[in-house]
Design goal:
about 425 residues; mainly alpha; about 70% helix; about 0% strand
């Protein structure tokens, strides 16, 4: 929960906890509220690494509501300048009200809005708390992710010990996450640890490198093809920043190649990753995208509503006399967003992403803001994975998106502009 540490900056940008603009329009939070927030931050950093952030979100929600009730905070997000995100949240109310399963649509939207609000507010608060606090949060996230990856490696070793080499090694996942979500978390940790290994001080370099090796090994065992593609995209993005980061990026790619060579002993792993470029092996995904596109053509003004794709897809299969299968989402973030809220939602989402990424890249080039560069690499990695799997509307994984997005919008605020085109 602290990508801002990658920059090694941790500037105390503000005394106020909700608006990092240098103004102090509210009383400071009480000691109990600050303690509760710090506990929630660390619980969130650990929970994010194992896919269990709900307790931290509840703690943050309670603390935030307390500060609102006592006049120590404001609902204002003026300093964030997140106009497209706010417009998207407001617009999605319309398709939610028109959805077939209205309760599910409104509940999903409310949960996503609360998660986004808490995540974005937390990013601003952490950026204002100083280096040491952010260091601890990054260490908690990467340390937990490395331990989780180690757990997967030990499980794989035990399986191989019982069945021997060349066994069909099953896909590995954490108890709190499905296998693809586990891959996503480890992908994010690998990108962040590689950035820390290049940009942090000597004291951090060794542990960060170890975390990178562990998380990449764990990611390989998930056999998540989308997560591997995302990791490659994140590494390449980092490699475009500095010569030092390019050297670490090359080292990361060498490690991935070495693991691929090692996977020769496990045909099941090598065979699965070998299907990435095979159209025939991914025909099910192609058929799903075709069906989602056909549904969108009939619902392009407002979509089918949040979390209503399963109903729309089931009806589509019946209408076209196709075999019935359950699909919770479209397995492509842009199709998913268009189906949730129609073409207007897709346009706002593209605006939101494009603006944040533009300001992150500009902040890096003009101010050498390493936190913006790290956040940009992580956002690129997530978006690449979201092209083929998962959905943004997951209450456990949504913070992984909002944390780098929040840092990029803070970069735009530092530039003194709204994050518009």
């Amino acid at each position: 929960m602290g990508l801002g540490l990658v920059a090694g900056q941790g500037r105390a940008e503000a005394a106020d906890w909700t608006e990092p603009t240098g103004k102090v329009p509210h009383r400071q939070p009480s000691t109990n509220a600050l303690m509760l927030e710090k506990v929630a931050w660390h619980a969130g950093a650990v929970g994010l690494a194992v896919g269990f952030t709900s307790p931290a979100q509840l703690l943050l929600l309670g603390s935030t509501l307390y500060r609102l009730a006592t006049g120590r905070a404001s609902l204002s997000t003026r300093s964030y300048g997140r106009l497209p995100l706010r417009l998207l949240a407001v617009w999605l109310v319309v398709p939610a009200l028109l959805a077939q399963d209205r309760a599910s649509a409104l509940g999903t939207l409310l949960g996503a809005v609360l998660t986004g609000w808490l995540s974005l507010t937390t990013v601003a608060q952490i950026r204002a708390c100083g280096r040491q606090g952010v260091h601890r949060l990054v260490a908690a996230f990467l340390g937990t992710a490395a331990l989780a990856a180690g757990y997967l490696v030990v499980r794989a070793v035990v399986i191989v010990g019982h069945t021997g080499l060349h066994t069909v090694l099953p896909r590995q996942s954490l108890p709190t996450l499905n296998v693809n979500s586990t891959g996503t978390v480890l992908m994010a940790a690998a990108v962040l640890s590689l950035a820390c290994a290049a940009w942090a001080g000597r004291r951090w370099r060794g542990p960060a490198a170890i975390a990178f090796v562990a998380t990449v090994a764990g990611l390989f065992l998930t056999q998540s093809r989308g997560a591997l593609l995302g990791l490659l995209a994140g590494i390449l993005t980092l490699g475009l920043t500095t010569k030092r980061q390019l050297a670490w990026a090359v080292a990361g790619l060498v490690l991935i190649f070495a693991l691929a060579v090692a996977a020769v002993g496990f045909p099941s792993i090598l065979g699965r990753y070998g299907t990435i470029t095979s159209l025939a092996a991914n025909q099910d995904r192609v058929e799903l995208w075709k069906g989602a596109w056909d549904i969108l053509r009939g619902h392009w003004p407002v979509g089918v509503g949040p979390n209503n794709f399963p109903h729309a897809y089931a009806s589509y299969l019946v209408a076209h006399h196709l075999q019935s299968t359950t699909q919770p989402f479209a397995h492509n973030v842009f199709l998913d967003m268009a189906l949730m809220g129609g073409i207007p939602a897709l346009g706002l989402f593209v605006w939101m992403l494009g603006a944040a990424m533009y300001h992150g890249w500009r902040s890096w080039h003009e101010r050498q803001d390493l936190s913006a560069a790290g956040a940009l690499a992580l956002l690129v990695a997530l978006l690449v994975h979201l092209q083929v799997d998962l959905t943004l509307f997951s209450l456990e994984l949504l913070p992984l998106f909002f944390l780098p997005y929040g840092l990029l919008t803070l970069a735009s605020a530092a530039d003194g502009e709204e994050p518009g085109p």
